[in-house]
Each structure stands twice: as C-alpha cells, then as structure tokens.
Amino acid sequence: MKILVLGAGAREHAIIKALIRTGTAPENINCAPGNGGISQEVTCVSLNPNDPTEVTNWAKEHSTDLVIIGPEAPLVAGVSDALRASDIPVFGPSKAAAALEGSKSFAKEVMAAADVPTGMARECSTIEEVESALDAFGTPYVVKADGLAAGKGVTVTSDKQAALAHAHTFLDQGMQILVEEFLEGEEVSLFFLSDGATVLPLSPAQDFKRAYDNDEGPNTGGMGAYSPLPWLPHGFVAEVQERVALPTIRELAKLGTPFVGLLYCGLIVTKNGIRVIEFNARFGDPETQVVLRRLLTPLSGLLHKSATGQLASTLEPEFSKDVAITVVLASEGYPVTAAPDREITGLAEEDDHVEIAHAATKLQVDGKLYATGGRVLSVVAMAKTFHKARKHAYKVIENIKLVGSHYRTDIALKVDEGKDD
C-alpha cells in the first residue's frame, strides 16, 4: 500500500513510525512536507499540504492508495474533499465535517442535537458580551476562540482581565468567542476511528497543556502525555462510545456531512459524570505519540478501512500492555515568544524503550539538526511501569542539548508506581 502523510510535526512522525512498526515498508510512505526527523525515515516531498489540487494531482501521479491528513489546516482547506472526488481513499473528514473542530459553536450545536453531555456555553461577538458571560459563569473563567488557533485558543484563568485580553485577541481576528462554565475533574483524550457510520476506539491518554511543572504557566499545544489511564473506571471507553462518539457521528451523517477520519474526544470526568470539553477532527499531539506507540494492530489497515467504509467488520485495535509516556522538548520562550533556529545535539539512538518524534526540526546538508519552532521533539518511552518509562524518557531528554530549551519534569508523575528497578 502506497501512503502519503500530510503534515510536518511530531504527530505525523509518530504516525509514520507506527505505520513502519506495524508492517508498512518505509519505501511505500511519503510525507509532505515532513521535517528533519521524518526525512531520515521516509521520502519527504515538497508540495503544499493545504492545496487540494496540488495534493490530489500528486496522489494520482504516484498511484497513492491512502492519504493520511495529520493537521487541521488541510482539512478546513478541503483537501479531503478533493481527494474523495478523485476516488482516492483519504483518512480525514470533509471540510464540512471538520467544522466540528473548526467551529466550537457548530460543535455545541451538534452535541445539543445528539444529546451529548457537555458544559454550558454562551456565544459572544463583542467584548461587552464576553464580560457579561464571564460575570454570569463566574471564576475560573473559560474563554475559547470559535475557530482554529493552533491549540492556543483556550484559556482558563481566575484573572478577569486576562480572560478579557484573551477574548480581545481573537475578536480582533474576526472570530466569535465562547465563554463556558468551568468543569472540574480529570481530563481524558480518547480517539475514535470513524468511517462515517461506525466507530472504533483507540486507547485513552492524558496530556499536559500548561508550559511548566505543577500545571503552571501559559497554555500550550501540549507538553507531554501518557497512556493508558489506570485510574479510569471500568467501562469508561464503552460509555464514551455510546454516549458521545456514536451519537456525534450519527448526527453529522444526518446533517449530510459524514465524518470519516479521527474523532478526538476531549473529555473531563466530573463528579456528575463524563462531559465533552471539545472535539478535534484529527489525531491529537502529543497524545498520538503515546497511543500509537502502544498499538499492535497494523495501522495502515485500520486507517484504510476507515477511509473506505469497512470498520463495521473490523476488530477493535489491540494495544500493548506496556505503558507509554512522552515528554516534549520546547524552544526558549515557548509558547509566548519564538526563538531563533538553533542546533540540537545529544540525541540518543532509539531502542526498544525510547523513540524520538521530531516536531519542528530541519536537517542541514552537513548533517546537523536544527530546531525551527516552538515544540521541537517528543521523547517517547515505553516500559512495564510508569516509573521505568519515566526513567527512560528523562534519561534521554536530559542529554539533549538545545540552548534555552525547556521541558516539564512531572509528566505521568501522579501515576508513577514509585517502584525502583
């Protein structure tokens, strides 16, 4: 099977690593545009992943059997629509269905129609409306941009002025704002494969959004994650499938916008039960790094069956009983300011325990590796226990040299069994 992966981050690198690990030959995988790490494993091609015509023409010319769309931008640009119109199997929802991520208001409407449990929210188009909603819901304040914001559209704060400033930023960009009630509990990320009618769950994960230890600092795209979640109640995945994923997929089909691809359910386990915080229309980063690291079932087959409407006859994916954690190495100033491109050294060789998924890297012709953006690398470790996985991950990341870089030291600390080797 010839596969084209669209994207350039650690999520796409993790997808490619999982494809290879579960049986796809590297020579059958291309990535556009890729990054420094991805280019060391598969062929990277220079085409614009957000251009429907360019992607479709390339896929046709190279007899591509499956296109996997990683980030959200190609989805809202309609790349999957163009591919489907040319009968090329694509893992990624249509532009209309991707509005489930691209518009928080649309997502709330779908959830209301499908009776999916979620928090109360108020849509605002002026700063006066935002302030009124903040006063109505009270602190902590939850303010969301109603559009794509690269994982930085949400703020949760007890500072009213900070909440208003966040709203101002996105109102000035022409976006609507959603002010929501604060939901207290443990957050869970749960991915579902969907073919438009059927869903299959992957393994739950938890990510860490704040930049610094103890959940301090600004919100980020994610500084680490772990999977599985041993503290989840029995039957959690089945409940989410029945109460959230299936009703959502069925409602979208009823609207004439079948969802084919990855339904990311951002959930919170409250004292009153499960609530949906948000939906995404693609694999999440950095949760993908740990979920797919544990996957045993061939990934190419799962995604192709999703893309071609064959999930009803597909067994649920199998996962390793080992645990996985990932720790993100970020550039100086992330997520507030951008650092200049800087050389990275000290990367360890990958082994059975540790792999490194590249996010913002480029490989120079002289073989030197440079960091080019905010989140640079994801160090992914797998072991029998969280204690051992943490030891493997932090041993590797401590030896990576990148001027000004930072990472959290408390990823999966709460579930660490506390046992020495």
Word description of this protein:
The chain is α+β, with helices and mostly antiparallel strands and 421 residues long. The protein folds into four domains: 3-95, Rossmann fold (3-Layer(aba) Sandwich); 120-180, ATP-grasp fold, A domain (Dna Ligase, domain 1, 2-Layer Sandwich), CATH 3.30.1490; 186-313, D-amino Acid Aminotransferase, Chain A, domain 1 (2-Layer Sandwich), CATH 3.30.470.20; 323-398, Glycinamide Ribonucleotide Synthetase, Chain A, domain 4. It has helices at 10-21, 52-61, 73-76, 79-85, 99-102, 104-114, 127-137, 160-171, 236-254, 287-291, 299-307, 386-398; strands at 3-7, 29-33, 43-44, 66-69, 90-91, 121-124, 141-145, 154-157, 177-180, 186-195, 199-201, 206-207, 210-212, 216-219, 224-227, 260-270, 273-280, 323-330, 342-344, 354-358, 361-363, 369-371, 375-383. It has a five-stranded parallel β-sheet. It has a five-stranded antiparallel β-sheet with strand order 12-15-18-23-20. Helix 6 crosses helix 9. The longest helix has 19 residues, at 236-254. The chain is globular, with a radius of gyration of 20 Å. The model has no long low-confidence stretch (mean pLDDT 95).
- What is the total number of structural domains? 4
Q: Examine the coordinates and then state which fold CATH places here, giving the name of the CATH topology of the largest domain.
A: D-amino Acid Aminotransferase, Chain A, domain 1
Largest sheet: 5 strands, parallel
Helical/strand content category = alpha+beta
* Averaged pLDDT: 95
Overall geometry comes to: globular
Question: Which CATH class of the largest domain?
Answer: Alpha Beta
Helix proportion of residues, in percent? 25-40%
Count of helices?
A: 12
Please count the beta strands (DSSP E, at least 2 residues each): 23
CATH architectural grouping of the largest domain: 2-Layer Sandwich
The largest sheet has its strands arranged as 3-2-1-4-5
The radius of gyration is: 20 Å
Proportion of strand residues: 25-35%
Stretches where pLDDT falls below 50 for ≥5 residues?
none
End-to-end Cα distance, whole Å, is 42 Å
Query: CATH superfamily name of the largest domain?
Result: ATP-grasp fold, B domain
